[in-house]
């Protein structure tokens, strides 16, 4: 007749401890996946924002910065907001991009392009600045 051997197999306590360790590991893994997904979304929004800001800066930079045309550039862009597809503007901005133009001296103008958006309960802001000389 076979005898029952107490030393064979795992005890109930050992199995419970193993289950707790596996559950804690799985929870930590799921948390890290969530953080990675959140960071990826933030990086995607930042790419959209910076590309839009660079595009707007190029648009302003392609204007004719001459003495005869600077007034037209300022009226078209200075303190104006512009829409960006894929970004939600913060509550105090009508659109995500704001362009400001300021005169440094008789021949130099600073162009500042700010892009601000809301995502995942936070407000983000990036800005580009470039100086243009009159032709």
Largest β-sheet summary? 4 strands, antiparallel
Shape designation: rod-shaped
Number of strand elements:
4
Order of SSEs, N→C? HHEEEE
Number of helices: 2
Question: How far do the termini sit from each other?
Answer: 106 Å
Strand content: 25-35%
Overall mean pLDDT:
87
Low confidence ranges? none
What is the structural class? Answer: alpha+beta
Describe the protein in words:
With 135 residues, the chain is α+β, with helices and mostly antiparallel strands. The protein contains two helices and four strands. It has helices at residues 12-61, 70-77, and strands at residues 80-82, 97-103, 108-119, 122-133. It has a four-stranded antiparallel beta sheet, covered by helices on one side. A hairpin with a 4-residue loop joins β2 and β3 (108-119). The longest helix has 50 residues, at 12-61. The chain is rod-shaped. The mean pLDDT is 87.
Q: Could you give a short description of this structure?
A:
It contains two helices and four strands; from the N terminus they run ααββββ.
